[in-house]
Amino acid sequence: MWAAGDHRRLPGRAEPRQPHSRPRHPGARTMLPLLPLLPLLPLLLPAAHGIVRLDSRPVLTREPLEGVTTGSTFVLEQPRCIFGEFSNSVIWLVVALDKDAFNSSAGPGTPETAFQSFPDPVRAYMTLNATLSSYPCPKPPGDITVLRVGSETSCAQDPTRPTCNGPLPGPGPYWVKFLALEGSVPVADTDWSAPIMLRAAKPASSIPATSGGHSAGLIAIATILSILFAILLAGLVAMLVFWGSESCGGSGAFSKPESVMVQRYNTHHVYDQPAARL
Q1: Does residue 124 contact residue 113 with C-beta atoms inside 8 Å?
Q2: Whole-model pTM?
Q3: If both were cysteines, with which of 17, 124, 141, 206 could 102 make a disulfide (CB 3.0 to 4.6 Å apart)?
Q4: Please, are residues 25 and 34 in contact by the beta-carbon 8 Å criterion?
Q5: Which contiguous run of DSSP H or E holds residue 156?
Q6: 71, 209 in Cβ contact below 8 A?
Q7: Beta strand pairing status for 74-77 and 124-131?
Q8: CA 27, chain centre distance (Å)
Q9: Would you give the distance in Å from CA 83 to the centre of its chain?
């Protein structure tokens, strides 16, 4: 006798059929509840990593402005229509000489991101914070929506203002990106910009003395003025010599004419004769 449930095969009987010829995959049942969440996976995956990387990067302004780049500043386009999904965030600008050295978990206003320690030992600092309301979308027509990086000089040496937008210390290259924080938590950022180079002053020894149209023109003007001044000076000298020769002796001497004495004569025969008689 066999115990109940014992499925030993008797001689001549076929093997009893199993419900499944192969064992079911262990995760087959667990996949079914996840099917409704598949459309949401693109939104859930970035959140799992902490920061949403936006498909945008800062660029220099395209506005026809003077001094888009100078020796210590450059002008960026404002981040319009980028952080619309993060209405409660504050937008910061990150400026870096070494983009790999920036730690997104280091908050603004800390020794790790203070402008006064840039570029050594701090290789990236945070500045120009603004709420999303400062960057309305779309841009109002006619508005110039730019950010000048490096325009503040009063706080450059003030350690109480670590987020100072101070003058940049060298020609670069610099990389920048925008970072959104909710409280002290980074929630979204843009890609790094292309490298930005500032204008560097040329040493005087590298500028040829006679190169370029402006230098040749200045030399010609200086030569003409020198010739005219020499002619004028020669004329003045000749005039002085002429006046000197006229005032000294010679045929040209000036003499006082002698006074002419006119003697009066009386005709005595006229007064001595008696009056004529008729």
Answers
A1: yes
A2: 0.58
A3: 124
A4: no
A5: none
A6: no
A7: unpaired
A8: 58
A9: 24
DSSP H or E segment with residue 231: helix 213-247
**CA distances from residue 237 to 113, 230, 233, 241, 246 in whole angstroms, order as listed:** 73, 11, 6, 6, 15
Contact 127, 93 (CB under 8 A): yes
Nearest by Cα to 146 from 74, 40, 244, 206: 74
Distance CA 13, CA 44 (A): 56
Strand locations in 132-272, DSSP E?
A: 146-149, 175-182, 185-189
Sign of the Cα torsion 261, 267, 268, 271 reads negative
Q: Which amino acid appears at position 113 of this protein?
A: T
Helix (H), strand (E), coil (C) string for 40-70: HHHHHHHHHHCCEECCCCCCECCCCCCCCEC
> How many CB atoms within 10 Å of residue 108?
20
Q: Alpha carbon 93 to chain centroid distance?
A: 15
What string of pLDDT tens digits covers the 278 residues of the chain? 444 445 444 455 555 554 444 555 454 454 445 444 444 444 444 443 489 999 999 999 999 998 999 999 999 999 999 999 998 999 999 999 999 999 988 899 999 999 999 999 999 999 999 999 999 998 888 888 999 999 999 999 999 999 999 999 999 999 999 999 999 999 999 999 999 999 986 665 655 555 555 567 788 898 899 999 899 988 888 888 887 776 665 554 445 555 555 555 555 555 455 554 44
Return d(Cα 58, Cα 174) in angstroms, integer: 12
